[in-house]
# Entry
Amino acid sequence: MINNYLRYIVFIFIILFVNLPNSLFSKEFSEDELQNLRDRDIIIRMMNGDILTCKILDFEQSDSVNEVITVQTQIGKTKVFSYEIAEIQLVEKYNRQTHRIFLLPTAEPIGKNHFIGDFEMLFFYAGVGISNFLSITAGTSVIPYIPLKDQISLVNTKFTLYTMNWESFEGKMSIALGGNYALMNTENKLYHVYSSVSFTMPKSIVSLSVFTKFGNQDVYNVHFDKNLFDMTYENGSFGIAAGLDTRFSATKDIHFIGEIWNSDVTRPTNTAVLVGFRLCNTTLAADFGVAISTSPFFIPFASFVWTPF
# Structure
């Protein structure tokens, strides 16, 4: 069994080794790319880690490869060389995590923001988008010394059916339908279907979801090799969830994230709240916080997501 875990870890390190250099070297920008970005609100991430929010005013060739780019920032005009730039993103596309709050999928598609993630250090997962319609996320735990049949696995599929841009202000609304299949171990199977509506704004995204659980079990034996406790989760339970991801005004890279879940609206005690912070750029995101339940209990959570493409 330990050999299986080592294979997982080696595979992930191979992925990182192959793709990480893409995040460490400056990129070349064609004149057409720069022309398309002219006079638009953009974010430039420099090779030294600095972030500029600005507009491209002009550019000119400095040699056969590099460009001298004149930009307008909040404190005036300045010039940067293209070899100093790691990445240029439109402001509205800077947050590449809009497809989720923390655990809660939003109605926004994954699109081109394919990712690899690690939850609580022992649950590895990944997500891919197909066009702006289909989003698939899947993962499994790799807890040492726990038999494979007692590991946790999850597959989530989401269809973004409708997106409408607001005319009166900057932002949009998306609607999605989805479903997931989870194994708490090979004997405990959970099925859910859900619908979501999300409102995406320049600094924030708010998402609301309704979901129902179905299957052929009402009581589940939660165990990792040995039985821990029995959990009651009745078929047909109707639940609701809401989430907020909002960026602090003073920075582009720190967000507040919060979620509230109720797995059965007829039982207010079946409620949990997650609150935390996200540190992120266009490549990496790290989430830290705590989950609070009416039981009561407090569970710290941490998640790391890498979006290399």
About this structure: Confidence is low (pLDDT under 50) at residues 8-24.
